[in-house]
Amino acid sequence: MFRNLALCLPLSTFAQTVKPPPVKASFGKPALIATADLADFASLPEDRRNLIEAALAVARDSPWLPYTARGAEPSDGGFDCSGAMYFVIRSVGLDPPRTSTAQYEWLNLKGRLHKGTADAVDLNHPGMKHLRPADLLFWGRPATSDSGAAITITHVAMYLGKEAKDARPVMINSTDARSYRGTKANGYGVYDFRLPVAGAKTAFLGYGTPPGIAEPPD
Known about the structure:
Blueprint: H1 5-8, H2 11-17, H3 46-60, E1 72-73, E2 78-79, H4 81-91, H5 100-109, E3 113-115, E4 136-141, E5 152-162, E6 169-180, E7 183-192, E8 203-208
Antiparallel strand pairs: 1-2, 3-8, 4-5, 4-8, 5-6, 6-7
Helix pairs in contact: 3-4
């Protein structure tokens, strides 16, 4: 009779042949909302509605997509921040770059980028007046002329708009430890959109409409 092969292998060999189970972060699954929960969603142009619907559908139709470095599709087990935007934007037939820095430059080179300002602390700031649902949002560290350091993008998300019930600005992205209505979460889902407070480690570096989505007139 055949014996159990695992019992015949040295412990060190067995440890090398069995992968440990994946470990999720201590924070739970992110929130999810419906398009009906978003103020003025029905009045958006069709291309913006389609992009937002696609972004929400990925979260709705997946059991949980935790933040995963280099993840760019659900089969990777999750997304990193730019991988989520890459997957969602491609799902509506557009061709974005893969990384957050390249996505920032994509908008910039196409004349779509509205750069952030350090004194903007909420969406009432004049610098945020062009923000529209389905725009990309960028955080990072600004370029510094004294040191010669280039701009560094550390996070990208998609703006969903404001919730109908209380005008709370929300976004969808893959992240770890950001929160929605006071509850921190890990992975791809809906989170509060807040601008950084003064003295934060990272700055809000700008926003803009992905090329291929029509920009509204001023």
